[in-house]
Structures are given as structure tokens and as C-alpha cells.
Amino acid sequence: MIHSDYRAPLWFRNGHVHTIYPTLFRKVDSVVYQRQRLETPDQDFLDLDWSIIGSDSLAIISHGLEGNSHRAYVKGMVRTLNQEGIDALAWNYRGCSGEPNRRFRLYHNGAIDDLHTVVDYAASSYKNIFLIGFSMGGNMTLLYLGKQAQTVPGAVKGSVTFSVPCDLTASSIALERTANTLYMKRFLKMLHEKVKAKQIQFPQHIDDHHYDKLKTFRDFDGRYTAPIHGFESAEDYWEKCSCRPWLKQIKVPSLIVNSLDDPFLEGGCYPVKECAGNPNTTLEITRDGGHVGFVALNQCGRYWSEERAVTFIRHRQFSL
Q1: I need a labelling partner for 249 at 20 to 30 A (CA). Which of 10, 31, 57, 301 fits?
Q2: Could you tell me if residue 211 is inside a domain?
Q3: What is the pLDDT of residue 318?
Q4: What DSSP element (H or E) covers 284?
């Protein structure tokens, strides 16, 4: 574990302010994507958004819960990567690209088969691939690298993840707290749209009756995520899809950056022991940062997380 030297600007030294501000006020308009639809082995599709400048290195970016490739934190990372001579691929989870997917399936923390499909596809075209994940995308990235360590393409040279709920049970408990009611309501409202879209496609399998009674991820995952994807309960889903138990299996250099003031994280989301037991994993704990925040005020408009990711990638490139 390393303690970070990141210090938030004065007005952002509050976890809630730091979490909310970028979502509401950050704009990144300079990124232009080329979209590609990739067919999956189960006859569904994933929409990939590319920002290519002609590099032999590629960063694949996995977004957070109810995010997509157009979120400011994704586009900010894409812009910085391109400025530093690195191609970027921001992929959208099933149902997150603006169009419902074909199969009776939702995206979730354990959907590492989809991440592998994307990585395996890109590996044939790039010498070096780096994985970058935010929040849920960070957990998915690390779960993939640990659980499927033997099948990760050799082109993958490292990963950087931010605000990672390494222990989904601990993170879900944190989000049940009264102070986080605003976030919970927002997530449930957005997830309701996914449920309603699936209800139109598969009315015999899913419905949103009494959806308003759902108040927590325990409620949502117990009613939808777990049974749809073959888990016994919300708790079973959280246990089996948390990256924390798999960190010791990771074989490529991986940096995990979590902030102490992140309102979404607690307890096992700071896997000090697990990272200490694997020389390939480094846990960097910042004092400030909120959840997917890491604001920096500068003329180039880059956030600290973007600079940190580039520094990590540059170090890996020089060491190869």
C-alpha cells in the first residue's frame, strides 16, 4: 500500500461535494468517437466507442454503474490518453449504449465474459493494452484479471482502477446509510429504466410491480440481478462478484486508487492485506477524492486521476 500525495483543492475536501461536483458540472466536449457494434458469443452485442490516433498502445475503459462512454470521467480520460499518444476504447455495458440488448440479461459486476470479449477482440490489433476501470468498472476489471488470469491475452500489460468497490457487500452497506440516500434513490431511478426496457422485451419474465418499494441494492439485486443471472440471493451475488478474493491471482501490474472520503466505500473496499500479498497489485489510498472525483484545477482541464493513469501507463511502457 502507498499513501498518495494527491490533495484536493480546498473547496473539494468533502467526500460528497467531491463526488457530486464532477457529475453535475464537468463538461468534456472535445472527444469524438467512432462507434462499432461487436457481436458477442451469445448472439447479443456490445457497442464500442473508439478514439484512435494511430498508436500501438490502447487503453480500454470500463465505466461505472449506470454510466456509459459519454460520461465526463470517461471522456476526460479518453482526451488525456489521446493527448499522450495512446488510443482509447470506451465500451458500453449491455443496455448502456442507448439501445436495449437482445438477450434476457442485465449488466452486472460479474459480467467479465463481456470484458473478455472486448479485450480479446482488441488484442489482435495492439501491441500493448491497458485496462482502466471506474467504480463498478474497476471491480469488473480486477475480477477479470484475477479470476481469468490464465486466459487474459498477453497484450494486456497492466490496469489502473479508481474508486473500486472491491467488497460489494461492504459497499452496499455503505450506500444503505442515511447520508447516502440521495445516491441510492438516483441509482434506483436509473435502474428502473433498464427494468422497464426489459419488461417490454420479456413481459413473461420480468415486471416492475411495486418497484417503488425497493430502497436499497439489497432489494434490487435480490429481486432482479441475482435471479436473472443465476445467483441465490443478493448476498450470493455480492460474494461471488467481488474482486477482493481474486486480487492475489492477478498476474499483470495493477494499481487500485481509492479515497478515504469516498461515500460508497468502507471496510473490505480497502484491500490492504490482499494487495500486500501480491507484488502485482498496488493499493494507493488518497485522503481526498470522493467517488470518481479526483478533481484538479489546471489550465489543461485534466483531473488528477487522468494524470495518475498516464503516469502508470508510461512507467509500464518504459519497463516492457
Answers
A1: 57
A2: no
A3: 75
A4: strand 281-286
Total structural domains in the chain?
1
Cell of 307: 494524470
Residue 208 resides in a domain: no
d(CA 103, CA 17): 38
Spatial separation of the C-alpha atoms in residues 317 and 314, rounded to whole Å: 5
Q: Is 317 exposed, middle or buried (0-12, 13-18, 19+ CB in 10 A)?
A: middle
Tens-place pLDDT, residues 228-246: 999 999 999 999 999 999 9
Per DSSP, the three-state class of 144 is helix
Cβ atoms of 121 and 51 closer than 8 Å: no
Phi/psi at 53 (nearest 5 deg)?
-120, 0
> Within a domain: residue 268?
yes
Count Cα atoms within 13 angstroms, Cβ side, for 71.
24
Inter-residue contact 145 to 250 (CB < 8 Å): yes
Q: Residues near 10 by Cβ (< 8 Å), separated by ≥ 6?
A: none
Count of residues for the chain? Answer: 320
Give the burial string for 188-199 (b: 16+ CB within 10 Å, else e).
Answer: beebeebbebbe
Query: Is residue 87 within a helix (H) or strand (E), and if so which, with residue range?
Result: strand 87-91
CA–CA separation, 190 and 95 (whole Å): 12
Interval 153-165: pLDDT, tens: 999 999 999 999 9
Domain assignment of residue 82, given as a range: 2-175+246-319
Under DSSP, is residue 59 helix (H, G, I), strand (E, B) or coil? strand
Q: Which of 118, 120, 116, 114 is nearest to 101 (CA)?
A: 114
Say which amino acid occupies 37. Answer: R
- Residue type at 205? H
Residue 73 has pLDDT above 80, yes or no: yes
Q: What is the mean pLDDT of residues 5-28?
A: 94
